[in-house]
């Protein structure tokens, strides 16, 4: 995305992280998703005492976008408090992201605001997607 959209995307992911509900892991994560139409949907992780019922920030952002009628995405930024390592999406989130294509960017950040960008296809190589069900 253009630099102004990228900076907004990164900022919205940091803001979303501040809303995380993570009393068990104490590992807040925020995500911000840029749709093809230029809208941004943010999400945070939401934990539950029944651990398997929690949801990651990336999936929260995607579900919010889907619920508003968006299914085409250009980029996602993910933020955490990890100091020396870039945050990466878990396998479940990568598969949910893959549902909507492989040709979009994922900005992986460190706590200091630095980032690297990966294409989704790099994060989930040899993936299974909707088109595979049509074979």
UniProtKB/TrEMBL annotation:
It catalyses: cytidine + H2O + H(+) = uridine + NH4(+); 2'-deoxycytidine + H2O + H(+) = 2'-deoxyuridine + NH4(+). It is an enzyme of class 3 (hydrolase). Zn(2+) binds at residues 56, 90, 93. Its EC number is 3.5.4.5. Keywords: Hydrolase, Metal-binding, Zinc. Its cofactor is Zn(2+). The active site is at 58 (proton donor). One of its GO terms (cellular component) is cytosol. GO terms for molecular function: cytidine deaminase activity; identical protein binding; zinc ion binding. InterPro entries: APOBEC/CMP_deaminase_Zn-bd (IPR016192), CMP_dCMP_dom (IPR002125), Cyt/Deoxycyt_deaminase (IPR050202), Cyt_deam_tetra (IPR006262), Cytidine_deaminase-like (IPR016193). SUPFAM superfamilies: Cytidine deaminase-like (SSF53927). Pfam families: dCMP_cyt_deam_1. This is Cytidine deaminase. The lineage of its organism: Eukaryota, Metazoa, Chordata, Craniata, Vertebrata.
